[in-house]
Target: Ergothioneine biosynthesis protein EgtB
Amino acid sequence: MAPPDKRLFRCGARCKDRGVEPTSTPAGEAHDLVSRYREVRAWTERLAAPLSPEDQTVQSMPDVSPTKWHRAHVTWFFETFVLAENEPGFSAFQEQYWFLFNSYYEAIGPRYSRPMRGVISRPGAHDVGRYRSNVDDRMSDLLDRVDEGTLAKIAATVELGFHHEQQHQELLLMDIKHVLSLNPLRPVYAGSPAAATPATPLSWLDFDGGLVEIGHEGSADRGGSFCFDNELPRHQQWLASYRLADRLVTNGEWMEFIADGGYRRAELWLSDGWGRVNDEGWCAPFYWSQIDGVWFEHTLHGTWPVDPTLPVCHVSHYEADAYATWAGKRLPTEAEWEHAAALQGPQEATSPPRGSDVSTETWHPRAAGPADGTLRQLFGDCWEWTSSAYLPYPGFRPAPGAIGEYNGKFMSGQMVLRGGCALTPPGHARASYRNFFPAGARWPVTGVRLADDGGR
Amino acid sequence: MAPPDKRLFRCGARCKDRGVEPTSTPAGEAHDLVSRYREVRAWTERLAAPLSPEDQTVQSMPDVSPTKWHRAHVTWFFETFVLAENEPGFSAFQEQYWFLFNSYYEAIGPRYSRPMRGVISRPGAHDVGRYRSNVDDRMSDLLDRVDEGTLAKIAATVELGFHHEQQHQELLLMDIKHVLSLNPLRPVYAGSPAAATPATPLSWLDFDGGLVEIGHEGSADRGGSFCFDNELPRHQQWLASYRLADRLVTNGEWMEFIADGGYRRAELWLSDGWGRVNDEGWCAPFYWSQIDGVWFEHTLHGTWPVDPTLPVCHVSHYEADAYATWAGKRLPTEAEWEHAAALQGPQEATSPPRGSDVSTETWHPRAAGPADGTLRQLFGDCWEWTSSAYLPYPGFRPAPGAIGEYNGKFMSGQMVLRGGCALTPPGHARASYRNFFPAGARWPVTGVRLADDGGR
Amino acid sequence: MAPPDKRLFRCGARCKDRGVEPTSTPAGEAHDLVSRYREVRAWTERLAAPLSPEDQTVQSMPDVSPTKWHRAHVTWFFETFVLAENEPGFSAFQEQYWFLFNSYYEAIGPRYSRPMRGVISRPGAHDVGRYRSNVDDRMSDLLDRVDEGTLAKIAATVELGFHHEQQHQELLLMDIKHVLSLNPLRPVYAGSPAAATPATPLSWLDFDGGLVEIGHEGSADRGGSFCFDNELPRHQQWLASYRLADRLVTNGEWMEFIADGGYRRAELWLSDGWGRVNDEGWCAPFYWSQIDGVWFEHTLHGTWPVDPTLPVCHVSHYEADAYATWAGKRLPTEAEWEHAAALQGPQEATSPPRGSDVSTETWHPRAAGPADGTLRQLFGDCWEWTSSAYLPYPGFRPAPGAIGEYNGKFMSGQMVLRGGCALTPPGHARASYRNFFPAGARWPVTGVRLADDGGR
Amino acid sequence: MAPPDKRLFRCGARCKDRGVEPTSTPAGEAHDLVSRYREVRAWTERLAAPLSPEDQTVQSMPDVSPTKWHRAHVTWFFETFVLAENEPGFSAFQEQYWFLFNSYYEAIGPRYSRPMRGVISRPGAHDVGRYRSNVDDRMSDLLDRVDEGTLAKIAATVELGFHHEQQHQELLLMDIKHVLSLNPLRPVYAGSPAAATPATPLSWLDFDGGLVEIGHEGSADRGGSFCFDNELPRHQQWLASYRLADRLVTNGEWMEFIADGGYRRAELWLSDGWGRVNDEGWCAPFYWSQIDGVWFEHTLHGTWPVDPTLPVCHVSHYEADAYATWAGKRLPTEAEWEHAAALQGPQEATSPPRGSDVSTETWHPRAAGPADGTLRQLFGDCWEWTSSAYLPYPGFRPAPGAIGEYNGKFMSGQMVLRGGCALTPPGHARASYRNFFPAGARWPVTGVRLADDGGR
Model:
């Protein structure tokens, strides 16, 4: 096979790879790269371990991809963008995989397009495992043997591959949660949920406005850390003073919204949102269902009564906005969120570290701890809807070349979310990270932090 | 679990169980029943053996059911209709299976409805195997131990279960053929296709008309063999003299139709058919595709160049009708077909007997043998579209009671097919057998036998 | 304009022209033809007279055509099939009308296709009137002046034009009834409904079976009257003895069906019908609505409380079949209906003659008169659903040539109705007339006559 | 009729009334109000004058409303919001009109919902004229007779009614343009297009950034002029320096884009836009069609060859964005646009004044005049797509009370357009005016002004 045309790379609407500036990654030493490579790759396999071949095959709606597709697609990334161009005597593991696991190809025809991923039973889960092992061996070999010049050249792409795979680790969990939710046997992915904790009151934190800067500080080659290009450039923005809730909206508070007719009062809703409420019969968050008058919630830990102290999750932007209107508040802008989060300092550590046994981990947002004058639950619980549409930053220019060609493509019709969630791999998110989904999306782990104008 | 309400039994649009008159089956001895039970049940498992858990999970379109669903549904039939009412201390293997594998429930809600069968990853293929074994053991015990009176009572239902399972054996193969057809890896279900044989010319056989009788001779308790109730009552019909082609239309002949603009000439088509041609871009039989100017056909033996001597298959009624118009002929009525087939005597023997290794069998229509003055290919190659709508016979009355309640339900909007096909289990079809599909269906193994008025 | 290609003529799914055998019409004298021409054409304009330009413009669903389209289309027929070929120095009134009013063109693109007829505001109702006058003048001139040879040649086409226009007279009323039904102002097309009359009991009439003949006796050139080719050939059919109700099912009887859960009991319905009941929320005949617990019916005379003595109308085949099942009866086959109707002698006279003022006529089925040992309400009230699919008669062959090319096109997926209705022009229907609609159609004036097997 | 509940008022997705702060209008003297009332109302009738009753009835797609609906709806506004509350002994002209012309009711059921406006043939165009006259007379009476206190109270609502009616004047023209575009007779609304003028080159104007203010200066009661509430509050925003093209993109430039594969190169398009290009077969602006290799454009003046010097119009946001990408530029933000427009001073005068005869006016964007160092074509030619999503300004709060209840409802999923177009009534637009449409809308008169970052 000729080296695949990198111009064709696009990860698809769900994958949302934004590329990096090609020279922006620190030329880490080969040893470190190999070690991080192994770590990232092993984590994907641990996440898939509890899932049967049948589980890994199902695509429960067009937005969802099968587990084995995720496992293969991230592998295809390394094979195509690293091995094909750098491995001596490169030969594809399986030529047809290039079509099956290349998300770009969804665009050119219905047959192997995104909604058809669930009909491709072969290669099976075990075959995908062999594909992964093969590419892992070849990647180790390559990274062990390349000269320093080549290493410097490919390090940024390998680094991008790590972050790409981490995105798919989160998607894999989001997607399998949806798959299992449709099964009346109420299957469980892992252990049991965290024990309930007492509710803590919501406090408001005040932030001065003024001329602030947002966006990532700069890319790696200028001494910064990794970022996607949609976080660039860092730029000035004028903010009026504002206030943010110090924790997320809870399930208990959401039940009050429901009890007060929240899903039946047109005046609370954006017009498009009200259309969805009626067309799709929304009356509670996505994974809630009522059994004999009691609300239950589908989680990766099984189906449990809704815990009122936990943050509400799996609500659309429309629901988040209607809730804020009902509460007499509003959602934060992404600039307000980032400015406040940055003031608080690096928060990545608040993401739960993960052990090697996924079945004993918690895969659900946790209750807020006691109020402490800081923004609680910034990372690691729920992605937080903002009131900002996903648009390019002033001065944004797509990176030259192949990967960059598709950078801004999704900057239309979607809303920005900030933070991170219980399914986000540790270390993946940051204050400047811009996640995005259409306003009606409900299967990501999304929650609500209220905001208000200052001086009220 | 309380014994399930038999009034709820309906096998769904695809399954099309038509019930039997409850007392119509010969009270075979228990030993024979057990032995036939084992035979039928084992054949289903042999058919599934080449299929991976992933293969068995996929539902490639709403009309298709996953292999493991077929395997479980036919088992549910015996558990529900035989064990639940007759097994002492009956307890369901798994209560939820009743919902998952009861095709009636497709009607009551979207969640576990027919189009959602492909999202239910659990129980997996192996779990279904355990369900089958459990029911098989309990069925053997029951049949071994029941007194003669009970045996007489349940024999008809068990017999119906055999024919029901045989229908699903054919559906299982039809469905997995569709699943595998969408996979660009071009998977193979079994061995290789039969070797090509020389084409033989088409001859016409003449049949006198007059007042004839069609329909099954009568049910078992009157000394006849098994039949579905839609084959009853036997009744008189007036036929003008007619002619039938002595073999099916071949791929080679179909290529002439294509070459002569068959799919582009509106005047050849029924109005609804022409709509489908245009809306769905039909330009050849369902499983044909053109690669570098050569027609290939997807089969259960893989993808092969179209063999011009084999009968054309996987064409809709609309295509069959358009072909007949193009050829200056017509399709036979079901009465003409049955009358002619009955004159020729029992044809079931023309279905290929099957060995125990499905991978060495032929799962595709075979070429016609040399002309011999008889109707060749009547059974065992392609179901043959007739020009008759699927309607009740004069005097048809649904059987009293539960199963009979749903007998005539599908007698609307479908066309009758006669004969049998390469996927039909040996001994399942007969001259009076009425198969039926909507005029646009293309995934069953359907072919064309031409007819003409007599005296031309 | 070159004479339009007659091969393109097709009147569309609604118009359902079936053509005639070209030489099958009596070569009436020119004078008679002109006089009948004037009569038929004038009746169309009288029917349109109560309708405003706005009324005449609306297309309320894809099956409905605007009044002014009907008026123009039937005019186009005479211009295209008579004038274009026979008028010396023919020149089209307006070239573009050929596209706008040629129902064939619905097939070739979305822009001027059937569902778009309601967006063509020009030519307006008045312009269509000028088109009609122009063609009428030219037709009179032509018929006055042609020699006998030409007259003989075109008489059959002119005759077909009459029957074509009569079909559209009925469609015009069916369609405007639907248009007005959607208007909350409850508009009235004409006068007031007929006064209520006492209900009369239903009696059963017995008919012997045997070898009978159905189909039209033969076309005009063999001394018969006009018929469409789908009524040919007359042929033999074997009937078992049967019984027919001597009147149509009434609104009062239908209310009992509703009260007994008729629309909620799956076991009464064909599978496809049950799907429609649920998908479209059917709970009563098409034009019924309940206001404060009382059933009202939209008619061309306005909205009135449902009169229990009138025949039920605007029910689909599915509803008719479910009602018959509920009543323990069945629908008649078309052969049974025609055989019985023919025995009773010509019935066309039962259609109400019409005066010149449409606003004082009754445009709704009337109550059955007193029982008199005959089949009451055979013509002129409701088209009667049969249990027969619309298929070609044995020996049916499309007429050679242009018009005949499309004859059998609609013989797929529809059910036969027999009789005639309150909107059918007097003299249009006959015992052998085969009307047809899809089983789900509810906007034609359709009713139910029950049948039963003999000897019960 | 009881006074209608003002809480129900909403003008629908297309009408997009945004309400005003109720006390924000100058209490003009009654005389002035009456005179302006007459002027606004008369203009609507002049716009409708060239349209036949049939033209006024058609709804060519769900987004379009019939002319007679527009004429009635704006009348309903005055009847409901002014007369019902202030007219002594108020009685509705026709009670049912409240349902038919109340755009709120589209939300509560399918029958009289927005997409069904085209099936309501009655009241006809003439009846609507009588409704208008009646309300006009009563409004004159009311305004003539009320005391000053009441006048002060209702003046703001009457003023809102003017702006509401002006919005519908533009919509009426937009909509009838679409209706007529589907008619193969190529109807003409008015006169002939403006004569061609020479093309003028595009120049760039530079603007400094910094901390700027945008938004309307404040409402009338604070001494300002009328504005909608979505233009408030005026607020600070930080802008980097930028450049704007001094004229709109021309048809000639767009042809270069087409010739360079603009509609076939995925890399130029936003992902959602590329989906539309493929799903809907976009290959040129909305009203363009190619005849024998020449591009023609449907206009209100008929169908004419595309004039390369005129601004391109009827392009979606997706197309505008793709064009800008192709040109190596970008679209302006709404803040950039408003800041630059405000610097240039009031521009409303650039809208063409209108005479009393609509048939001699120009209803199409005009060519740019000679370059003169200013932003040409800011108002009165094409609405200009910006890169800004339609979101609330910082500090935006819906006005208290009824009308304000629905203010922010449409701030989701739409893009902002600035300026005004050839169909906008003179005096209606202003620099702070925020128009908005979904990114895929093509039937408004939309064009493209390019922008770029400063310092390039």
Q: What stands out?
A: The first helix of chain B runs from residue 12 to 15.
